[in-house]
Amino acid sequence: MNDQTMTPEERAANLKGMGSSRKRVEDVRFTQGKGNYVDDIKLDGMLFGDFVRSPYAHARVVSVNKDAALALPGVIAVLTAEDLSPLGLHWMPTLAGDKQMVLADGKVLFQGQEVAYVVAEDRYIAADAVELVEVEYEELPVLTDPFEALKSDVVLREDLEGQTEGAHGPRKHHNHIFTWEQGDKDTTEAVLAEADVVAEEMVYYHRTHPCPLETCGCVASMDKVTGKLTLYGTFQAPHAIRTVVSLISGVAEHNIRVISPDIGGGFGNKVGAYAGYVCSVVASIVTGQPVKWVEDRMENLMSTAFARDYWMQGKIAATKDGKITGLWCHTTADHGGFDACADPTKFPAGFMNICTGSYDIPTAYLAVDGVYTNKAPGGVAYRCSFRVTEAAYFIERMIEVLAIKLNMDAAELRRINFIKADQFPYQSALGWEYDSGDYHTAWDKALKAVDYEGLRAEQAQRIEDFKAGKTRKLLGIGLTHFTEIVGAGPVKNCDILGLGMFDSCEIRIHPTGSAIARLGTISQGQGHATTFAQIIASEIGLPADDITLEEGDTDTAPYGLGTYGSRSTPVAGAATAMAARKIRAKAQMIAAYLLEVHDDDVEWDVDRFAVKGAPERFKTMKEIAFAAYNQAIPGLEPGLEAVSYYDPPNMTYPFGAYVCVMEIDVDTGEWEVRQFYALDDCGTRINPMIIEGQVHGGVTEALAIAMGQEIAYDEMGNVKTGTLMDFFLPTAWETPNYITDHTVTPSPHHPIGAKGVGESPNVGGVPAFSNAVHDAFRPFGLTQSHMPHDHWRIWKIANGLGMHG
Amino acid sequence: MIPAGFEYHRPGDVASAISILQEYGDEARVVAGGHSLIPMMKLRMAEMGHLIDLQAIDELKGIEIGAETVSLGAMVTQHELITHDGLASAIPLIREAALQIADPQVRYMGTVGGNVANGDPGNDMPGLMQCLNATFELSGPDGNRSVAAREFYEAAYFTAREDEEILTRISVPVPDAGVGQAYEKQKRKIGDYATAAAAVMVGNGTASVAMTNLADTPIWSEAASTALAAGDVDGCVAAMLDAIDPVADNRGPVEFKKHVAAVMLRRAIDRAQSRAA
Ligand SMILES: Cc1cc2nc3c(=O)[nH]c(=O)nc-3n(C[C@H](O)[C@H](O)[C@H](O)COP(=O)(O)OP(=O)(O)OC[C@H]3O[C@@H](n4cnc5c(N)ncnc54)[C@H](O)[C@@H]3O)c2cc1C
To answer: What is this model's ipTM?
Structure first.
């Protein structure tokens, strides 16, 4: 078959463009162990850095004695805050407008905090030297409870003493960071006061950690001859890191090259700036040698960016037949010792104000108080857009709590409160404009797929059997309908440290009709090299297999804000389509010239421009590419390339309906997921297989979070879950089988209608699992119980309900 | 997660291993599969100047199935315990328990000798060996001796083994035909130590009951075993609950552990009884 005889459908299929379940091009190297991660990088004369960390959660650092460490052969230097302070680098700015100690400056505020940085010839010597640094501490009272912290006389941040104004407004107490208010307080409280029914509950979303398989790390390499600093690292936002490094180190931005090589998962853990980066850069500048720093697993869990830790007090008002009239939420947010949340600057609690969820709630009010405690800093978006998981968990629990109060079926309560398809674009009470959605269709499809009625009948039978002593297992049906807000975002209200959150793509078509595209984002497993090539393939008619995709090198890629918050497809994906369209526009002129007709007399046909009304007269994109470089065309520059910087007009609002069916053993607290159904609507679907993979991975993380994963502290501020023995990371054994499904409601403002999917399963999965546990015990009187639902906590529910005789 | 430096020794026989232990005293430790010891070294909770690898000592290997007794070399891996057909038919309980230890990767390396010598109350094999009434063979500078598994454990990480002794083999009496056996373990996930685990043998008017990770040593209870031998399941459970002494940890508080201890024990008894002739 050749170009002449193939149908347009066959030609389109050959492109492996949008909608094709094209295999991931990345996997060829990953499955052969040929990835290139930060720790694979080896440079001549490379030194190793390692940290002395605080064993205490709150203590004064009385003295640091480096002598024994420096005497160890192979040790090059031991840095402390004292050494960094002449450079002004003993503190660094955080993404949240706070500042954070790089190395302990007089005191430590969390267990695992960096106290000294040892530089040695190899990592083994560095590890031995860490043991030899003698630090004298004087313990201070520890605050691990944010509510206590707000009452305590103990001042955690002495550096801020007397500062009543923080980065986000007034501070009410020396351990208070900010108050963030959204919505209409007075109206909401009036609605609550007059409502038929008000359900009230404290919903806690516990502290956990993204725990990517690859921990954080970097290699800093200062070339004293050229004055150029190359920084390889596990960065989710390489360009932003370049700008920040330039601003804090004083090295001119053109002399800094940041490279994110292959990244073994990020999930938000690799967005922020860490002490390890700063110390490695300083060490390389001072020594003139490359310096590598890579965290071990315990350091990763204890010190770099946690997630969640939101105490959400909620009130939800409704009429007696279940129409929701108002939502009220007060959140106490535990930020740890420094406010290092990774949120757009104007949103200190991220997009927590998406907490009205999928429901048409006429009035709402949200207040968030950020609090310092003796815990690690962070508060990153662990596979979710900023605080969207917390918001979704909150509303999806409040709906269930309201259903209990109303004695209504929770599926029906959702249905009667959904925003209707004809209400989009929808203005939410807390200030967002939802772009598109069709929640009723998705919901009905999901309930039908799982035979919801049948499940409820089975559950009723099970309850009878349980009461009759025939079984000790309960059946829980966990429902969730979530709405996300992703794709930050419009530069007019979204920036990080003043850097606008647009993104970019540059495409160059080669003369023989293949191409390279570079983006401002960076894949950490999402498969960008596969999917972005598909967007280009569909837009300009060159096969995806002939398109190389590059990200992560700031010397070659256009500026962008990176990959997190499901923003790559909504923002960089849009830039990709827009850049491709610029190329197609020029290609149209070239084709018209070659076909000797007017520009308007040719039309696009999959992979070619053809003369209108004469489809046999055409020029393929391949022919056009060759002509673009090799034929003098009057009025046109040679070449075929384009760049687009895309500032999205709005966020995108993916949604989905998830159902989890769980068996629970009331005697041991053991659980088993019998069925998990995930329907996702992420708008236009670029690669269904990758979507399915993202859903499987995200739901598995959600399973972990809901059912056991946590960063727990004892009252001394010791991390109790600092290894993978205690921090739950599911294996294939614990992971259930998933059924995935979809509806397609394109985003009206996105060039290809795509909304992003990577984070939906984590956002929707957590409430689905948690609601299943709650649902199992609902008939026995349970209203609310905090995650994680590990064996003993489930057992405690049963025990509290008198089920152990 | 980088251990302190150490010298590595790889002797070819037990006598050489013992003489290295004698030479370096408490500076030296033997390593078998390394899956308990090496994590402790990486955490720098165990530091020693000399590590004596037992992998090259043939005397410590092999499974011998006799009519009355099974002899397990200390260096037999947990994987071998699972895949040895003769063992599975002689004492099915060992295979059933080994399958519930950690995950396949750990079991390829971890040895039965290391598991019982370690003295960690979380290890599954010590309770199992107490249930089976096994005997541990030790070799030291003063010759060989045997210690009953039921006499071996003193406290967490403290056993009857002297520092300069090596555990060479484990002898396990083959249970009579008609004795039902079961191992029941609750854990949080694959690769986890027990929240509570029970090893039970019952039949022919005899019984033996031991539990794991519910005190600072494994617990074999004579009273519980006697009660079960007499068919008194409630008495057996009550006696065992008296004998255990769990502590609160990430797996849960004491009341929870006691509760699931009873549940595991009852389930193991049920299954063992259903298998008894
Ligand atoms: C992720 C993970 C999960 C695990 N889960 C479980 C579990 O569920 N149940 C369980 O029982 N175990 C579990 N283990 C432990 C595992 O079974 C170990 O392999 C076992 O406890 C020790 O055997 P080893 O051969 O690895 O011993 P090593 O680690 O080499 O040695 C352990 C100790 O015993 C001493 N020792 C070893 N051999 C001898 C000998 N012949 N004579 C004298 N002293 C000796 C060593 O000096 C050391 O002190 C787990 C381990 C890991 C890493």
So the answer is: 0.96
